[in-house]
Amino acid sequence: MSEAVISKDKNETEILAQIKEIISSKSVELIHLQFVDLEGILKSITVTVDQFDDVVAGKQMFDGSSVKGFSPINKSDLYLQPDLTTFAVLPWSVEEGYSEARFLCSAMNPDGTPFEGDTRNVLKKTVDRAADKGYTISVGPELEFFLFKTDSEGNPTQQLDDNGGYFEPSPKDFGERVRLEIYRALKAMGFTIEASHHEVAEGQHEINFKYADALGAADLATTYKWVVKTIAQKFGLHATFMPKPVFGINGSGMHVNMSFFKNGENAFYNETDEIQLSKEAYQFIAGLIDNVKSFAAVTNPLVNSYKRLVPGYEAPCYIAWSASNRSALIRIPAKKGMATRVELRCPDPSSNPYLTFAVIAAAGLDGIEKELTAPASINEDIFHMTEERREELGIDNLPGSLEVAVQELQASEFARKTLGEHVYGEYVSAKKSEWDSYRTAVHSWEIENYQSKF
């Protein structure tokens, strides 16, 4: 472990002492207090290290009315409470005699209670709900991204950085050098990197990091997206987590692997079952299938998300599960025992990971609490089935557009309960507005197909 990485198994006093030691040894002068807005976009307030004691005490105030989905202007004062375990020195900031660090924070009300509009707090509520049932949640997300060249002013173009394919090495994989620097930065910030490779589409990449508890995994995913974009920019490139930036090739997903643990054992594992899944695992799967249409607007939050969720590009758009079939929405990876997990394949990396992990875990808990029964697994290739065959097997579709997904979200009591009234209301309003903006805009496709013809 790097000397600048926080040990999470220590108590608060020990962690504080370790942070102060790192600040001294690394000559940290500035600390960035980071948090996310409703959409999961990272925000930051920078303070000098002289403010450290006040920062740790949660005394840093900010204007919540200026953050998307947060407070009205008449209740705008909010405070940032750093999560001490997220402290990290920024490896690209280190210079001789100077460096910068960051904390990820939760937003708090002036009275010290958690602010309900902070999506990090939404996930905490779901974690607490699972804990009340004796479960801890383990999450391993897999975030894909594209690298595009930039123009002379640093703006992204539509020109990809390479024309490599799946697992392609150099010289075709020009992004290899970028991934190496991303890997080094992530490792210095405490990540355990498991794999790095070129993805299926030209210019598409993936770097896998080790699973963590639900909140820790959302923090890692948020940090990962920030680091990837920051390092890419240093190479004159633009990294995007947009789900479908190029027509005709694969889009980017964020497969989410999730397990529940109880008393230190994987609650999804049963060695006597035919495919080694427990009763809870089957109920978890049933909960996902029962609720996925109502939370698709969270896991797939953009107009563009539904241009990825179409047949032919490896993205699942049919609601089914399987122990091996990658055309199914839900897959059970081959590793079992402590590694037994359920993989949901529809989420994309534009989503807010705090909300995404919250709705997935809550849907699974819903299945367990209601003792739902999972439908039969589908082991045929769903992508190449006829519509009649899918109807015969009872295979439903995910929403086909953001408009439909938001309608499902708006009608869902499950979503309202999981997100809380504040986030639910703000999120529905924001996404309805986004769809309306898209619906009323005139797009280049319309110009190309209609302007000269009519």
Mean pLDDT: 92
Second-tier CATH architecture of the largest domain: 2-Layer Sandwich
Tally of separate helices: 12
Structural class: alpha+beta
Distance between the termini: 66 Å
Q: What is the CATH first-level class name of the largest domain?
A: Alpha Beta
Give the CATH superfamily of the largest domain: Glutamine synthetase/guanido kinase, catalytic domain
Radius of gyration: 22 Å
Estimate the global geometry from the Cα principal axes: globular
Give the tally of β-strands: 19
Number of domains as seen in the coordinates: 2
Enter the CATH topology name of the largest domain.
Creatine Kinase, Chain A, domain 2
Percent strand equals 15-25%
Subcellular location: Cytoplasm
GO biological process, one term: glutamine biosynthetic process
EC number: 6.3.1.2
Keywords: ATP-binding, Cytoplasm, Ligase, Magnesium, Metal-binding, Nucleotide-binding
Give a written overview of the molecule.
The chain is 35% helix and 22% strand. The chain is built from 12 helices and 19 strands. The protein is globular.
Give the tags:
12 helices, alpha+beta, Ubiquitin-like (UB roll), eleven-stranded mixed β-sheet, Gln_synth_cat_dom, single chain
Concise account of the structure shown:
With 454 residues, the protein is an alpha+beta fold.
Any chance you could write out the topology, listing elements then pairs?
Layout: H1 12-25, E1 28-36, E2 42-48, H2 52-56, E3 60-63, E4 77-82, E5 88-89, E6 99-108, H3 119-132, E7 136-150, E8 156-160, H4 176-188, E9 193-198, E10 204-209, E11 212-213, H5 214-234, E12 237-240, E13 254-262, E14 265-266, H6 279-299, H7 305-308, E15 318-319, E16 321-322, E17 330-331, E18 342-344, H8 353-369, H9 387-393, E19 396-397, H10 402-410, H11 413-440, H12 444-451
Parallel strand pairs: 1-6, 16-17
Antiparallel strand pairs: 1-2, 3-4, 4-6, 5-6, 7-8, 7-10, 7-11, 7-12, 7-13, 9-10, 13-14, 13-18, 15-19, 17-18
Helix pairs in contact: 3-8, 3-11, 4-5, 5-8, 6-8, 6-10, 8-11, 10-11
